[in-house]
Amino acid sequence: MAEIDRNPGIPLDLSWVSSVSVNLPSVKRRAETLTTRRTVKKHWQAAWLLRAVTCIDLTTLSGDDTDGNVERLCHKAANPVRTDLLDGLGMTEAGITCGAVCVYPARVPAAVRTLKRLGVQVPVAAVATGFPSGQYRFKTRCEEISLAVADGAMEIDIVINREMALTGNWQGLYDEVKAMRAACGPAHMKAILAVGDLGSMTTVARASLVAMMAGADFIKTSTGKEGVNATLPVGLVMCRAIREYQQHTGIKVGFKPAGGIRTAKDALAWLILMKEELGDAWLNNHMFRIGASGLLADIERQLFHYVYGRYAAGSELPMA
Ligand SMILES: O=C[C@H](O)COP(=O)(O)O
């Protein structure tokens, strides 16, 4: 993401924040029609799926992560699609990689080392600030950011303080996110709202705005650990907040749905949402990421089908 502009943020505008409200039935209706009114034509699907691959933050966030499995993840992020499939699609020279590798702070050194050894420009994203709950002291949450940046993370996925959003303490939330943004230094910051914890779509829309006002370069739906994670209706509300922020400030903020996105069909639905609500400027990995631990396997299976006309046996796509 190095070459794109950052979001410098703006002063907190409380009257704008409190003026926001969401009409839930109309959001649901719109989300339902998104994938029925518009589909991706068969002969474009492989191209869209390859685009989705380049937008994946290939993720492992498990208690039993080791340097070994993080190294394997980095190899996969550097070469996400088998060479024969790329040959079959005429994309051998396209240099397709995932958007980033996303890991816990303790795994950043292994990820940075491995990607450097592989010689690919895939950034390492670290979750930080007491991910996933954020229930830690402010000082240690900020220190986690600085340590991950010092270890070479170029992107930081912070979690917001849910209590502040739930109680409408927008000034407190703004101050925290702004301080986190300062701790990120040159690293790009994605603000995870943990939408499944926020109780209402209006709170999601207001928290989206406050995070952007405080300087978030991306807003992200979920940690993947809440009961409800990325859904199209919530994505729609967040994309509209991004659009409103751009209309008022001229600043483009990126979007990252994450949590439970597992199928090629899901990936296409999220791309359609981006195209319909934000336009082509968001159809790239500078402005759009999909946080996922298990999505790539299904995309590779669909690409195999596209190239060979049949689905692969498990043994034919072992890396997936
Ligand atoms: O930030 C990424 C999420 O933790 C990934 O969630 P997932 O494991 O459900 O794909």
Automatic annotation (TrEMBL):
BP GO annotations: carbohydrate catabolic process; deoxyribonucleotide catabolic process
Localisation: Cytoplasmic granule; Nucleus
EC number, as in UniProt: 4.1.2.4
Annotated Gene Ontology cellular component terms: cytoplasm; nucleus
CDD domains: DeoC
Quaternary data: Interacts with YBX1.
Protein name according to UniProt: Deoxyribose-phosphate aldolase
Lineage, uppermost ranks: Eukaryota, Metazoa, Ecdysozoa, Arthropoda, Crustacea
